């Protein structure tokens, strides 16, 4: 898997309510220091076509089989990589992704139980690149779900899953982090938001120092 050409590709992963959106603003500010361009993306979505696919994926009225869910995730990701991420990295920008392929391994692999060999093949073929650095915000399922619900609004199709689904998602994320310790930084996201932010910012600064 080729690493990002010139820029730096950072992704942030974790279950519902782990605090990804909360931490991203702080990471964005660190990456932008020195005047570097930062491109923030979210999944599924991030392009007009991808946002249309997001509707299909997340609206509670849809009855997607797991295989269709996986392929739609990668359809949106293929658009995002080619229209946004690769051009940004080629310009030397930093890309800050709210979820990427690790989420497919966690949700469609761990959660839905799909064969991870197929997901790895899609990663090679449809995504074609992997982040340089990935933050995993790890929090207990009940705590994360309580936070996500406190945000208000109607839960989307995936947020309506049962706790055992999210337990499998969490376990799959942790297994990926364990298998690739060089790329992953696992942050204890059960801490108060300030402490989570500080831990993530310190880990990013540390990584940037080692990869000038
Ligand atoms: N460490 C934390 N402790 C307590 N509440 C938090 C923490 N991080 C985020 N929150 C709150 O929990 C909710 C979900 O956080 P959010 O950043 O949207 O999670 P995610 O993007 O991972 O789903 C928000 O209302 C946010 O303000
Ligand atoms: Mg979020």
From TrEMBL:
One of its GO terms (molecular function) is ATP binding. Transmembrane segments: none annotated. GO terms for cellular component: cytosol. Keywords: ATP-binding, Kinase, Nucleotide biosynthesis, Nucleotide-binding, Transferase. Gene3D superfamilies: P-loop containing nucleotide triphosphate hydrolases. Its EC number is 2.7.4.9. It catalyses: dTMP + ATP = dTDP + ADP. InterPro entries: P-loop_NTPase (IPR027417), Thymidylate_kin-like_dom (IPR039430), Thymidylate_kinase (IPR018094). GO terms for biological process: dTDP biosynthetic process; dTTP biosynthetic process; dUDP biosynthetic process. ATP binds at residues 14-21. The keyword Nucleotide-binding applies. Residues 12-198 form the Thymidylate kinase-like domain. It comes from the Bacteria. It is an enzyme of class 2 (transferase). Belongs to the thymidylate kinase family. Phosphorylation of dTMP to form dTDP in both de novo and salvage pathways of dTTP synthesis. This is Thymidylate kinase. It comes from Arenimonas malthae CC-JY-1. The lineage of its organism: Bacteria, Pseudomonadati, Pseudomonadota, Gammaproteobacteria, Lysobacterales. The gene is tmk.
